[in-house]
Amino acid sequence: MRVGSPRENYLGLRGWVWAGRYDIERYLYSLHRITGLGLVLYLFMHLTVMAIVRGILGEGSYDDVIDFFEHPVFKVGEYAVFAAFVYHGLNGLRLIFQELGFLLGKPKPPIYPFRDSLRRRRPLTLGMMGFVVVLAAFVLTDFAKGGP
Amino acid sequence: MRDTYLWLLQLVTGAIIAVFLAVHMVMMHLDNIVGFFGGHISEPSSWSSMIDRAKEGWWLTFYIIFLALVLYHAIYGLRGIVLEVIPSGRTERVMTGMIWAVGLGAFALGVYASAHLFTR
Amino acid sequence: MDTVKQIRFRIQRYNPEDGAAPRLAEFVVPAPRGMTVLDGLFYIRDNLDSTLAVRSSCRMAICGSCAMLINDFPHLACHTQIAELEADTIEVRPLPNFTIIKDLVVDLTPLFEKHTTTKPYFIRSEVEEMENPTAEFLQTPEDLDAYLQFSYCIKCGLCMAACPTVATDRLFLGPQALAQCYRYCGDSRDDGANERFPTVDREHGMWGCHLAGACSEACPKGVDPALAIQLLKRLRVSRALGLGRKRRPTPLASPPTARQPKLPVPEFTVKVNGKPS
User: Fold this and answer.
1) Which of B73, B83, B104 to mutate to test the interface with A (most CBs of A within 10 A)?
2) B5 contacts on C by Cβ (under 8 Å)
3) I need a labelling partner for B81 at 20 to 30 A (CA). Which of A118, B52, C26, C204 fits?
4) B25 contacts A62? CB cut-off 8 A
């Protein structure tokens, strides 16, 4: 008997960026992960800077650090953090309900062409995304005007 | 059984953080919205403003609870991702150890820094 | 009017005997209207390259054998018309998230093993009845609707190929196993939820699902495994928190007590030409 070598075929982390021609909900999952990781990264930087500068270094360094972060590059980053939070939070609220089995509808005997529960709830998802876009745009105007 | 409760706590902390973080962001950056609600904070990110807040009991409580919630939510999320990408029994044990270390460490640092300012 | 289009098939080939990296092979197939992708693969195997390895059986979307990645989306080849793909080039690859044995044939053993671990059979306390059944268990139409959709699973593996968690976590049970777990836990005749929970109440069980919904999108039978898994989570949470009504499994149908009384009309036989036929 000839022995062949089977080949691994996992999609892996590549699937977070492009997995195939799936609907938007599949990529909302990817974006939820990516914004989550981005927020965690920001969180640990923020906590470190704040704890060290406020708690340990004191007033002079604090004001210097705050002024350092007023540079436009950091302002863009700050807006990105805000946008990530708006998306992650609102999509998360939708996930809280749907992962507990609410807001998904009841099981229906499948009749072709099939529409599964997430597709049937597409209006809810689009409404949530619309709210995200509106909030992000509203705050963008605030940032663009020179910000706080 | 334990996994169910850990997951539920992720949902609860997520919902509360949505509110707390919105408050934090609005307060730090959107003075006009704060003005709309009748409050008045000038230059919330300046040292003097920050010290005033650090000395108020309410703000201290808010920040400490906020820190605990955020650390739980962030670390549970990271744990899920790591266990998914590197699935093995050993990963679970290593992760659990690191989680307690990083989580408690960060929380302790935050509480220390806040208490330090509160008692200045 | 039967227009025959010349369709270019680009098929991922892999030969386990030489172990070289998989590569795409091109074939041109004359495709009249109504031809499915599986028909195209048969044409290639019959006329162009007889070494092509393809799994298929029923060719009518009920056995689940011909699952593969067609133009970047998991389809059953027999269930996919070439015309519906609206492309002149069709790229056919083996199902992702399973090891490739040869060409388009993948190893589905993990699918079946994970399915078995979720105990996909009725579990009740009446052990004698389970071994030697005497009657049926009663069930209302509402009880049936609660799980019927999830019972249509043909175990094709398309949902496992679509799931982003299966793509990264090889210990994850996958949408098929979890949805079938709910098919039994949510069935009013079953009493085995507590036995199944240890297997599915883990990070590599139902808590690894984050509602990407790709499984339900890919399912060729409309089973909606994503909904089944969220309902399983709801069941687990309500049991863990002690909420919701405690549902007792439905009882056995009682045996018929007496024959139905005869109808009050006389017995009659059909007569043909004056004589009983």
Assistant:
1) B73
2) 240
3) A118
4) no
pLDDT in tens, B15-67: 999 999 998 888 887 666 666 666 666 666 666 777 777 777 888 889 999 99
Here the tokens at position A69 are 């972060």
Average pLDDT over residues A39-57: 85
Q: How far apart are CA C15 and CA C168, in angstroms?
A: 25
The domain segmentation of chain B, as residue ranges, is: 2-118
> What is the rounded distance in angstroms from the CA atom of residue C123 to the CA atom of residue B93?
33
Cβ distance B74 to A40 less than 8 Å, yes or no, reads yes
pLDDT of residue A54 exceeding 80, the answer is no
Measured distance CA(C121)–CA(C116) in Å, rounded: 9
| Prediction pTM value | 0.90
B18 and chain C in contact, CB less than 8 A: no
- Structural tokens at position A13: 């982390």
Q: What is the pLDDT of residues C1-10, one digit of tens each?
A: 568 999 999 9
> What is d(CA A21, CA C69) in angstroms, rounded to the nearest whole number?
11
Note the CATH number of domain B2-118. 1.20.1300
Q: What is the pLDDT of residues B68-81, one digit of tens each?
A: 999 999 999 999 99
> Which tokens belong to C37?
């992708």
State the pLDDT at residue A148.
47
**ipTM summary value:** 0.91
Residues of chain B found within 8 Å of residue A37, distances taken between Cβ atoms: 78, 81
Task: Give contacts of C172 with chain B, Cβ < 8 Å.
Answer: 84, 87
Structural domains in chain A?
A: 23-144 (1.20.1300.10)
Domains of chain C and CATH, by start: 5-106 (3.10.20.30), 109-241 (1.10.1060.10)
Separation of alpha carbons C242 and B110, rounded Å: 36
Enumerate residues 6+ apart whose C-beta is below 8 A from C42: C54, C56
Q: Which residue type sits at A105?
A: G
Q: What is the mean pLDDT of the segment spanning C89-97?
A: 97
